[in-house]
């Protein structure tokens, strides 16, 4: 006798010989279960969790609960610093360095900024240039962008992967400047930030998520770099590519994701 598909939100137990199906998509077999509620979830409804896979409803419930806890704790629009340690750490370093730039009359800028001609003798500038900014407006725009993408990406990637993506993206941006604009001084975290946006795109796309809005955001900012003089589009493009590739490598190398793909075959 035919049975109605399980309702979403209803915990079920598989019957012998039955193929579990996704409550949201009853026409799709679902051999993976949500680690939180135990319901079967198809590949479109899976969200990678720190342990196992969760369904979209459990993730939404957890996000709502976390939002309520933050409001109750008086955190307002901004989460506590401990929630995004790498993002807040980068912001803190950039602010301190900018204050030193103001106090020392740009001597710090001269010591940390990157120029391709100095790569062989002072290669650390490829990384330290990310923490130096040309003006207060430059600093504020970059830190705001970093905070926005950090809120979305650091909890998903995990702090150490997020830090690796940022660092490699900064180096990728500097490498692009070395190859495409060897006579240019560069400062700013935008290469690393573009890398984080690229990583967010790759992370979302790899899981079958919607990326249309993110593509538009990235494209608009890339065009802005080409049109407005004084902006290193080379660093933006280099960081974007390296960030996306790094996130993909993390996913491909993940034993958990490989096991999930094997179960879905």
Automatic annotation (TrEMBL):
Belongs to the peptidase S54 family. Residues 122-249 form the Peptidase S54 rhomboid domain. GO terms for molecular function: serine-type endopeptidase activity; zinc ion binding. Keywords: Hydrolase, Membrane, Protease, Transmembrane, Transmembrane helix. It is a multi-pass membrane protein. One of its GO terms (cellular component) is membrane. Residues 1-20 are annotated as: Disordered. It is found in: Membrane. The chain crosses the membrane at residues 81-104, 124-148, 160-179, 185-204, 211-231, 237-257. GO terms for biological process: proteolysis. InterPro entries: Peptidase_S54_rhomboid_dom, Rhomboid-like_sf, Rhomboid_protease_S54, Znf_B-box. It comes from the Bacteria. This is Rhomboid family intramembrane serine protease. Residues 19-48 form the B box-type domain.
